[in-house]
Specification:
The complex is a heterodimer of chains A (about 725) and B (about 190). Chain A is an alpha+beta fold and about 725 residues long. Chain A is built from 20 helices and 16 strands. Chain A folds into three domains: about 220 residues; about 140 residues, Sandwich (Immunoglobulin-like), CATH 2.60.40; about 170 residues, Heat Shock Protein 90, CATH 3.30.565. Helices cover about 60% and strands about 15% of the residues of chain A. In chain B, α1 links the parallel β1 and β2. In chain B, α5 packs antiparallel against α6. In chain B, about 60% of the residues lie in helices and about 15% in strands. Chain B has two domains: about 120 residues, Rossmann fold; about 70 residues. Chain B has a five-stranded parallel β-sheet with strand order 2-1-3-4-5, with helices on both faces. Classes of the chains: A alpha+beta (about 725), B alpha/beta (about 190). At the A-B interface, α13 and α15 of A face α1 of B.
Chain lengths: ~725, ~190
């Protein structure tokens, strides 16, 4: 069972005690004083129930004397005829009363032999209007006989009395007051515990208020007050008490089940409780099917549950149910009250107003004790809940302590780790610096290598034209000397001809002979070609040197305005046979390409690097130079408004190409597919760095065994400006 | 020797160089030029050249490779490598392997190149002559062997005058060998002097 949240300690016994004692005090007050206490009762039974009053005198002899104040004929289906005598001589203001409101029907006849002089009827079955204390006038003639015919489903208990009229009235009033007090107490208990039932939500409380309600109604029934509720319903008028008794039993059993936690402490008793519940259920059913006698007896049978519950509470107590003692005491009081009532009904106890209060007082005490027990139970639950809370609190405090300790330990460890990390970090930054130094060195080496390659290319490129310029000049001097010789011979011959000197003809002949020998025409032609060669060589030299000027200083950082086409051309030129002689390099430059602010030397390095890579890729794929192709393209890229926004350089080769993995890594420093020692793996990494500095993009498309295309895009405007500032 | 025309072949992929070379040396030598390796091979097969010059850096084939190609068929021709840039590793290797006689860098000095060509020619001549002399010696040795065989047969015949005949024959052989030795000794001494 889930413990409900605790409420205030239930303290209700002090006011309740007053209400318990009040009926007792009332009971101890003036009882109905019997004027004639020697009423003589004689009765016979009429099993058929068909006997008419006219025939009674025939049976009068069969009547037997009834003894005691409260003759008890028990439950019987017979009609019981009672002759009441002994009233003769009583004063006129005295009446006969039959103080048993549970009797269903009471017919009173004043008989004179077979003659019915007067007839009167009363009883529970006749409904609301009937007197709770039926009162009957004495016959006027003392020789007449007073006969009562009683039919009842309830025990035929006949407390006849002779009472003065005004005393009857007082008796009624006192009874009303007692019942009102009792009802008040029951209502108080009912309302208070209803509130508790709803606020605690405990099942035991709900069954308890059911018990209180039904027990209260049963007490009402005993006093005939139930007819105020359903006296006008004929069936209920007869069966009301039985039904209430059955409900009361059911309620008591259900309550016991909940309160004593039968399933927990005494599970084997649950079966018995179920059987008893069936008995009460059967009582209700039989009452419903018009067997009121059976029903009443079933209710009485069900009363066995009272001692059973008492025993059950003892066992439950011994099994450690802390609520059981309360229940035992309450139930014991109830049982005592019931027993007293029974003893009174059977005439063992004197029927005094005092003994009449046992039952209501017993029930009220029972209700109160059970209410206390419930309160105590709530307190127990609260205590156990408090204990649980305290345990939980202690546990949480312990947890908190542990967590704190752990936190402290964790903090210490975090501190340690942080220090270790800081140290490691320091070590790493040192390593990083070393690495950067090494990288710088490598980059420097790569630059020097580029420079060396460039120098070699330039030397070769320059030496060829210089060679033929020089050689041609030498040859030309010789040719010129021969030509001069011929010219001199001819001019000498011409002079001697003009002077008409002797031997002039001979001189002319010699001059002609000389010209023929030296092959004048050839000399002229050769000289012309030699001069052409010199001019060509000079031009070529100038172009190479011009290209070199475009490069600027190899490691210069200054920005110059340069034409990309010039740079590309110069790069190819400078690469010389490392490019041209190893592959067919096709150049396609768009015209009117604007110049670009750039670090020309570095860009040349970029172009050379990519072109050399391209050539090498073709060399790996094709054995014949004819098949190796490298295309270098330069074009402008137009923006949205057709204005040129960027320059694009494409360097495409038909070499081996590369797979995706390689393609993604080519710009990584130290990544190389070349053999160890053949490449630093820095070339393209440096290329990327230089292009990044220029705000240029580089893209690579490549397919294995088809070729690779490097696409370089140089923005024309925005980044250039910032670079100017940076420079 | 001086009256013989020195035939020189020059291979270079750059035409201005060919023209320069021809203009410089056409007066002394019979100069043939060519800018195509295959054509050069063909020319070597068709004519007897004393000296072959080749540029080292050419599109399809390097000078060293070209020499390697022609050496088996023309072992005696003097091979001179001309290059614009001292690609030393390759050149040294080639010289050590005997594929190249001399190495000349561009721009060339005309006098130097001339003397290199001339010495190349000398080498060629020497190689050819020594080959011829070798042939001569072998022929003489064959003659001596045949004569010795004849004399030994005659001696074995047991004829009365055999000893006298063999003595005469041996003296003749001795004279022939001494004469030959004298001739070669002079020519070798002469070569050493140059």
């Amino acid at each position: 069972m889930m413990p409900r949240p605790p409420y205030g300690r239930v303290r209700k016994w002090r006011p309740a005690l007053f209400f318990v004692l009040a009926p007792l005090l009332l009971g101890c007050g003036q009882g109905p004083s019997t004027v004639v206490d020697a009423l003589i009762l004689e009765s016979f039974r009429d099993p058929s129930g068909m006997l008419r009053p006219e025939q009674v005198h025939l049976k009068a002899n069969a009547a037997e004397r009834l003894v005691g104040d409260r003759p008890n004929l028990g439950s019987t289906a017979d009609a019981v005829w009672v002759r009441v005598s002994g009233w003769q001589g009583a004063p006129r203001n005295v009446r006969v009363i039959l103080d048993n409101p549970t009797l269903d029907s009471i017919d009173v006849f004043t008989l004179d032999g077979p003659r019915v002089l007067n007839a009167f009827r009363s009883g529970a079955a006749y409904g609301q209007a009937e007197d709770l204390i039926p009162t009957f006038n004495l016959p006027l003639n003392e020789s007449h006989e007073l006969w009562f015919r009683i039919r009842s489903t309830k025990p035929v208990l006949l407390p006849f009395n002779l009472t003065q009229v005004d005393r009857v009235e007082a008796l009624r009033e006192r009874r009303d007051l007692a019942v009102a007090l009792y009802t008040g107490m029951v209502l108080a208990i009912l309302i208070y515990n209803s509130f508790l039932a709803f606020s605690t939500g405990q099942r035991a409380y709900f069954s308890y208020i059911f018990v209180v309600l039904t027990v209260g109604l049963v007490q009402w029934g005993f006093n005939g007050y139930d007819r105020l509720l359903w006296g006008n319903i004929p069936w209920m008028a007869t069966n009301g008490l039985t039904v209430m008794g059955a409900f009361s039993g059911l309620a008591a059993l259900v309550f016991a089940r909940h309160f004593l936690e039968v399933r927990r402490y005494t599970p084997q008793w649950d079966r018995l409780i179920q059987v008893l519940l069936v008995v009460y259920g059967a009582a209700l059913v039989t009452a419903l099917f018009g067997l009121p006698m059976v029903a009443y007896n079933l209710v009485n049978l069900g009363a066995l549950s009272a001692p059973a519950m008492l025993l059950l509470s003892v066992i439950s107590w011994r099994r450690g149910n802390p609520s059981a003692p309360w229940y035992f005491v309450a139930w014991l009081i109830f049982l005592v009250a019931v027993t007293m009532q029974a003893l009174r009904d059977f005439g063992v106890l004197a029927s005094t107003p005092m003994t009449a209060t046992f039952m209501p007082i017993g029930t009220v005490l029972e209700m109160l004790l059970l209410s206390f027990a419930l309160g105590n139970r709530i307190n127990l639950l609260k205590r156990s809940s408090d204990e649980a809370n305290a345990k939980a609190l202690a546990a949480s405090l312990e947890n908190e302590r542990i967590v704190k300790e752990q936190n402290a330990e964790l903090e210490a460890r975090v501190r340690q780790r942080t220090e270790a990390l800081a140290k490691a970090n320091q070590g790493m930054s040192t390593a990083l610096e070393d690495l950067k130094g090494a990288q710088d060195q490598l980059i420097q080496n790569e630059k020097l290598a580029s420079l060396g390659q460039m120098t070699a290319g330039i030397a070769h490129e320059l030496n060829n034209p210089i060679n033929y310029v020089q050689s041609n000049a030498t040859s030309l001097r010789r040719d010129l000397e021969e030509l001069i010789e011929i010219i001199e011979a001819h001019s000498a011959a011409l002079a001697s001809l003009a002077e008409r000197a002797p031997g002039a003809e001979e001189m002319v002949g010699r001059a002609r002979e000389r010209a023929r020998a030296l092959d004048l025409d050839f000399l002229v032609e050769e000289s012309r070609q030699l001069i052409e060669g010199i001019l060509d060589g000079a031009d070529r030299t100038a172009r190479i040197v011009g290209g070199l000027r475009v490069f600027g200083r190899m490691d210069g950082d200054q920005l110059v305005e340069a034409s990309l086409s010039d740079l590309l051309e110069a790069s190819i030129t400078v690469l010389g046979d490392r490019a041209r002689n190893k592959a067919r390099i096709e150049v396609e430059f768009e015209e009117e390409i604007p110049s670009l602010w750039c670090q020309s030397g570095k860009l040349s390095q970029v172009f050379m690097n990519i072109i050399v890579n391209a050539v090498q890729a073709t060399e790996l794929r094709w054995p014949e130079t004819e098949d190796r192709r490298v295309e270098v393209q330069l074009k402008g890229l137009a923006g949205e408004d057709a204005e040129m926004v960027a320059l694009e350089v494409r360097i495409r080769d038909n070499g081996t190409g590369m797979d995706e993995v390689t393609r993604q890594r080519i710009f990584d420093p130290f990544y190389t597919t070349k053999d160890i020692g053949k490449g630093t793996g820095l070339g393209l990494s440096i290329v990327k760095g230089i292009l990044d500095d220029h705000g240029a993009e580089i893209m690579v498309e490549s397919t294995p065994e088809v070729g690779t295309c490097f696409i370089l895009r140089f923005p024309l405007h925005a980044p250039g400006a910032s670079q100017t500032e940076a420079a | 020797m001086a009256d013989e025309t020195i035939r020189v072949l020059y291979l270079d992929d750059e035409e201005p160089n060919l023209f320069s070379f021809k203009a410089a040396f056409r007066r002394e030598f019979e100069v043939h030029t060519c800018d195509e390796p295959h054509q050069a091979v063909r020319l070597l097969d068709e004519h007897e050249f004393h000296v072959v010059l080749s540029d080292q850096r050419m599109p399809r084939i390097s000078g060293v490779e070209f020499f390697e190609l022609v050496m088996p068929d023309h072992p005696d021709v003097s091979r001179i490598l001309v290059t614009g840039y001292a690609d030393t590793d390759a050149v040294v290797d080639a010289i050590n392997k005997g594929q190249v006689y001399r190495f000349v860098s561009k721009p060339w000095n005309e006098e130097e190149l001339r003397s290199v060509i001339l010495s190349g020619y000398e080498l060629n001549r020497a190689r050819v002559q020594s080959a011829a002399r070798g042939t001569e010696v072998l022929a003489m040795l064959d003659g001596v062997t045949v004569e010795l065989g004849r004399l030994s047969t005659e001696l074995a015949s047991g004829a009365a005058d055999a000893v006298a005949h063999v003595q005469v024959g041996l003296r003749t052989l001795q004279e022939t060998v001494v004469e030959q030795r004298h001739r070669y000794g002079r020519s070798i001494q002469k070569e050493r002097k140059t």
